[in-house]
């Protein structure tokens, strides 16, 4: 009897795990969780008083011991609008690998980030397409010339029984 219950539990767990979305940026209904931020009209660049391009370093793996064994990391790109009154418009989010080749472009259309809003894009731990020198390029603009968005990456991983996390800041390259 216990063997049957255990077998049933294993089957149910396997089915539940197989139903999870392989892309953490897709919600449980199969939709891009950030699609609601898409701007449905053209954004007049002449109306923008602030424009910038931000470079954000990502580490998808790091060396963790003296024998040069590497450990894969999950990475989250976090874009935060620090204005309490003006929207931030994001026109580009591109992910590049160590060799500088474009791996993935995340936006088909610009998105609007409401005042004090935040969006996150996740690179899963098992996604090693970026390599140790991966990076994001984020293009953004605002009608407020004094915009000061915060763009960071947070990496998290483990090696053996030790867990670790760290962040990197984005830098203007315009």
Walkthrough of the structure:
The chain has 174 residues and is mostly beta strands. It has one helix and eleven strands. The strands form two sheets. Strands 1, 4, 5, 6, 8 and 11 form a six-stranded antiparallel β-sheet that branches. Strands 2, 3, 7, 9 and 10 form a five-stranded antiparallel β-sheet that branches. Residues 11-22 have low confidence and may be disordered.
- Biggest β-sheet: count, sense, barrel? 6 strands, antiparallel
**Could you give the count of β-strands?**
11
Give the domain tally: 2
User: How does CATH name the architecture of the largest domain?
Assistant: Sandwich
Please give the radius of gyration in angstroms. Answer: 20 Å
SSE order, one letter for each helix or strand: HEEEEEEEEEEE
CATH topology of the largest domain: Hypothetical Protein Tm1070, Chain: A
Write the layout of secondary structure elements.
Layout: H1 2-18, E1 50-57, E2 61-63, E3 70-80, E4 88-96, E5 102-105, E6 111-113, E7 118-123, E8 135-142, E9 150-159, E10 162-169, E11 171-172
Antiparallel strand pairs: 1-8, 1-11, 2-3, 3-7, 3-9, 4-5, 4-6, 4-8, 9-10
């Amino acid at each position: 009897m216990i063997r049957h219950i255990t077998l049933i539990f294993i089957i149910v767990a396997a089915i539940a795990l197989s139903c999870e979305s392989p892309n953490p940026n897709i919600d449980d209904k199969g939709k891009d969780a950030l699609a609601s931020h898409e701007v449905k009209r053209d954004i007049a660049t002449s109306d923008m008083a602030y424009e910038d391009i931000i470079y954000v370093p990502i580490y998808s793996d790091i060396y963790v011991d003296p024998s040069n064994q590497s450990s894969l990391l999950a990475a989250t790109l976090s874009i935060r609008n620090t204005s309490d009154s003006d929207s931030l418009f994001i026109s580009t989010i591109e992910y590049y690998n160590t060799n500088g080749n474009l791996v993935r472009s995340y936006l088909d259309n610009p998105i609007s980030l409401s005042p004090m809003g935040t969006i996150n894009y996740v690179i899963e731990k098992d996604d090693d397409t970026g390599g140790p020198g991966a990076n994001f390029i984020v293009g953004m603009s605002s009608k407020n010339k004094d915009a000061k968005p915060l763009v960071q990456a947070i990496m998290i991983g483990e090696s053996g029984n030790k867990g670790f996390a760290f962040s990197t800041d984005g830098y203007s390259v315009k």
